[in-house]
Amino acid sequence: MKALIVGGGIGGLAAAVAFDRHGWQVEVLERADEFTEVGAGISLWPNALRALDTLGVGSVVRSRALLSMQAGIRDRTGRWLSRTDTDELERRFGQMAMLHRADLLDTLRSNVPPGALHPGVTVHEVTPDGTVRHSDGTSGGDVVVGADGIGSVVRRSVVPDAPAPRYAGYTAWRMVTSPVDLEDGGETWGRGTRFGYAPLPDGRAYCFATVNAPQGGVEADVSALRTRFASWHEPIPRLLAATEPHAVARHDIHHLPPLRTFTAGRVALLGDAAHAMTPDLGQGACQALEDSVVLAASAAGGRHMDDALAAYDRSRRPRTRMIARRARRIGRVAQWSAAPAVALRDAVMARTPRSALVRSLTPVLDWTPPG
């Protein structure tokens, strides 16, 4: 049995590892010339670490990560609005991990069989019978996995009435600093603006900033960010001072409206190709990892392939829809800009007990891998 995977990011490589562990032949087609990841950090919640354990790489990822750091949300003066009870989260659900995305990608890539990775291949069309037409010819598989991101060619081929991605109303800058002294992470919420940061294992820090803006209408280098956040609390100005211009990348934030199906014939979508969500819950890559584990287990479970992929769709579509909806809701509130609304938001957050956050995260973090 063969799984042909379109897309060599985190979701695609995780799917390759998952199918390989079930004894399948795997082949990964990646449009880029190299299997690389942008210079940014990634937070892995306990559900993602359980998926990585199922893939057999959880211990390696933990060894390359910082585990269970303190975090929370402040206002721009540094006043705490919400503190994350990380001890209780860890007790109930397990550890969290923070690492560079490239380290996660490298770990997954090193567990894909030699010869299975094919960079520099552009996919043009996929048909439900498992045929993939691409720049090197034609390939096929017993299952074709569309892991080719929010602009997925696979999705357009097999779900032609799929809605287009929608702009969330804000743009984001992601960056990795030079080595800095930083013990904990967190987010700071202003008026239509946010800044988040977290330490990385090598002494650098991963940071992001968001600003309400017209789609495609904002370009800013690090000097403009330094000016915008100059009056915000430390360590934000210090982190921006430690950021080189080449280390900043800007992307408008989009999300994908719910699809009516994640599968068609022998083709299944996962990750951003199926359910691209705003980053406000930190669950985008986490859900792609869950997808890969569930899809491989469903396909390898001895059922007819139609039944297997239908089971995957039933399992993943409601869960990812719920999480994407929660992420959008958080993002809207976090990006409020009207002064009265922001004052109300901050007051409510400051009065909300930590236990409420733990309860609200339970449906997201209590996922258990199949089998």
From TrEMBL:
GO-annotated molecular function: FAD binding; monooxygenase activity
Keyword Transmembrane helix applies: no
Transmembrane segments: none
Taxonomic classification: Bacteria, Bacillati, Actinomycetota, Actinomycetes, Jiangellales
Organism of derivation: Haloactinopolyspora alba
Pfam family, one: FAD_binding_3
InterPro entries (alphabetical): FAD-bd, FAD-dep_Monooxygenase_BioMet, FAD/NAD-bd_sf
Residues annotated as domain FAD-binding: 2-326
Keywords assigned by UniProt, alphabetized: Monooxygenase, Oxidoreductase
Superkingdom assignment: Bacteria
UniProt KW Glycoprotein keyword: no
Protein name (database record): 2-polyprenyl-6-methoxyphenol hydroxylase-like FAD-dependent oxidoreductase
